[in-house]
Design brief:
This protein is mainly beta. Helices cover 14% and strands 48% of the residues. The chain has one domain: Calycin beta-barrel core domain (Lipocalin, Beta Barrel).
């Protein structure tokens, strides 16, 4: 069940995406069915056609409130591990991600972990070593949480050019 608060956050996120010029279709015309009938798109296709601008980059980030993670991007996927804080040891790998460059070394990325279920977006500023995260964690469950935090980026590793 999506709460009123979740709807507001989702609407706000869609507004931000729209203001940044990042469009993603949520429905498609069903050309084989009745006229005007719509069907949900295959979300896997989104990630297949997505940009993966952070591949071969890794770094750590530390939240101001505590807790830190290692994250690495590769082959259109990412992996992360909480290395300190209350979630220490929590990790995931081979998660498809998508990205857009919205400025000089400034990226917005997102990914969806259906098994948890979590949806996460990060704004990564590699010039200023700052990261902003927004997520709906465990959405649709009784323990749904909204995450909206800032972190410092450290130990960036980039591919050698």
């Amino acid at each position: 069940m999506i709460t009123y608060k979740s709807k507001i956050i989702i609407a706000s996120a869609l507004l931000v995406y729209g203001m940044l010029g990042i469009a993603f279709p949520l429905v498609a015309q069903d050309t084989e069915g009745a006229p005007g009938k719509e069907k949900a798109l295959d979300h896997t296709l989104q990630y297949t056609n997505a940009q993966h601008l952070l591949d071969e980059i890794s770094f750590e980030y530390i939240y101001k409130e505590g807790g830190s993670l290692k994250i690495a991007f590769y082959d259109g996927k990412l992996q992360y591990e909480w290395i300190s804080g209350p979630r220490k040891g929590n990790n995931a790998k081979d998660i498809p991600y998508q990205s857009r460059e919205i400025g000089d070394d400034l990226y917005i990325i997102n990914w969806h972990e259906k098994n948890k279920p979590d949806f996460t977006s990060l704004i990564i500023n590699l010039n200023k070593n700052v990261l902003h995260s927004s997520a709906i964690l465990r959405y649709g469950t009784s323990i749904e949480m909204i995450h909206f935090k800032e972190a410092t980026i450290e130990r960036v590793k980039r591919p050698v050019k």
